[in-house]
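Customer ticket, subject: "Can you confirm the structure for HD-like signal output (HDOD) domain, no enzymatic activity?"

Message body: Hello, I'm evaluating your service for our small team and ran a test protein. I'd like someone to confirm that this is what the system normally returns, since I don't have a reference to compare against.
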Amino acid sequence: MNRVDAFKHIAAQAGRGELAFPANVAASLKLQQALNDPDCHADTAVKLIQADPLLAARTVAIANSVAYNRSGTEISGVRSAVQRLGVRTLQSLVASLIVRQLGSKLTDPDLQAKAAQLWEHTAHVAALAQVIARRVAQVDPDTALFAGIIHEVGGFYMLARAAEYPGIMDGDPEDWIAHGETEIGRGVLRKLAVPDPVTQAIEAMWTGMRALPPENLGDTLLLANDLAPVDSPLHQPQGATTRASARTIDFAVGDGTLEAILRESADEVKSLYAVLML
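Agent reply: Thanks for trying us out. I re-ran your input and got the following:
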């Protein structure tokens, strides 16, 4: 089976909901389902988070990040962190755990490198999207953070399946974009029960159409993607010239500019990125 046929085969499986997740993802999916329940009480969320030491550490860390700790008062317990963050941010943290778990069992060095770079890219996009949403687009920042974290989840799923199809991730990235990214991405997003507005924003990234200044979540993700200093390894590299051009994107925002806002928010972006890279 050649690369294109392999992408089409996996895409067809994803379209039918026939997704094969690594065993370590199952518990995280159950946790996400519990947090998605509108009747999920804070005490329940605390117990669920405490049951996973890594997630507990990340929860406290993001609660103490510059973006969420405006008062400068650090906390050390999961309960206090949950109260500060709220369930929606916890959903983002669980999503980040699921995404990283998809690439955690890779043994091939090339696939490991791709997964590591893809997560670096994802963490930058998520951190930038949160700040751009809050300071520029007037979009819900928690939703933007969540969308940034999962915007490449289809790619992580493909990397997790790549060992079954030797060489599938070698060669022209356009094969992945043309024959796998959309259908596989949609299938994984459905499995994760991602809300329609977030799915639609991620689909807008696949078409590449946006408005400046950003007017909605899709525009916010695309701008964050352009500004991210690390490329996705599953797409054609932007290259120094394209990235330099992206970094010069500027426009008026109220009495300021995008460049000024990003400069003022650099510590927030750096702090969020650091937590996501834990």
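A couple of notes from the result: The beta strands are 252-253, 256-257. The chain has one domain: 3-276. Feel free to reply with more questions.
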